[in-house]
Please model this.
Amino acid sequence: MKKLCLGIESTAHTFSIGILDFQGNVYSLINDIFIPEEGGLHPALVREQHLDNFMQIINKALSEAKISIHKINLIAFSQSPGLGPVLKIGAWVARMLSQVLKVPIVGVNHCIAHIEIGRLKCNIKDPLTLYVSGGNTIVSAFESERYQIFGETLDLAIGNMIDSFARDAGLQHPGGPKIEKLAIKSNNYIPLPYVVKGMDLSFSGLYTAAKYLLQSVDYGNKYNLNDVAYSLQETAFGMLTEVTERALAHTEKKEVLLTGGVAANQRLQSMIKSISIEHDARFDVVPLKFAGDNGAMIGWAGILRYKAEGGHNISETMIKPKERMDKITVPWRS
Ligand code: AMP
Ligand code: MG
Model:
């Protein structure tokens, strides 16, 4: 009998259940995504949706995988980092399942899970990873026993920044794919604040400047929305590419992995691919099903930790909303 893990993702907008075996074969993956009617992610509203829907999502995942819940051997959940009220739902569901089913539980760092599912699905051993999503912007690689952070945003996450700009331009959430479609129609670059500080990035000045440009768009004079979308992408992705390239030169990794929801963007893919080629590194994008937040990646990272050092005690399963990935041991790679 194959051993099975049920992975629970619950750090932000997505409540997701993935069921997979200890070899990494995924039998089902069901996502429930909170989409704000207006404004950003309000933790209390996200929490309510996750609380309303979690049982339905678990049942759907079990029926798609065609297994009974009693066949599950391990529960993994996203323990860090994320929105406190939302993390609590996943942790609560995980603790309940683990105790009712009498199976081990293991808490997982969400950012490490993004890298591990990429290593598994792209068959990559030791990548430099650019993880770009609604809530995170991190350049990371394994060094000195940890997933070290070589660069990160100092303020807004790239996905959040693009979504906020799109919202200002009257586009519905999620804005990323819509901005990409508009950007393709222009090559009229309008200079915008490009802010790289050491190895870190700052997107707030870029966001504000792009938002002001929208006012000129209204007058219909020099630029249109396509031009602003194009310039926003070129500037932000140029910053990401610069920091990724410097980390690549420093670490001398031979593989580059692009992951997170923003990894779907073709322009970003081509920029990161080009620097990978220049540094003789293999480039890959995590399959989009596994690039955004999902329960399968949590399950896989949970399996890796469980195999290396067993499960967590229930007293170790409290959520850690601010925990950084570079503070966590990675016994399966050490
Ligand atoms: P995640 O937080 O990893 O689930 O990813 C969600 C984020 O990915 C949102 O901010 C989306 O706007 C963004 N996103 C999805 N597709 C694209 C795209 N084609 N270009 C840019 N951003 C995207
Ligand atoms: Mg994520």
Q: What stands out?
A: The chain is about 45% helix and 20% strand. The first helix runs from residue 43 to 65. Residues 14, 133-135, 159, 162-163, 174-177, 180, 260-262, 264-265, 292-293 surround adenosine monophosphate (ligand 1) (CB under 6 Å).
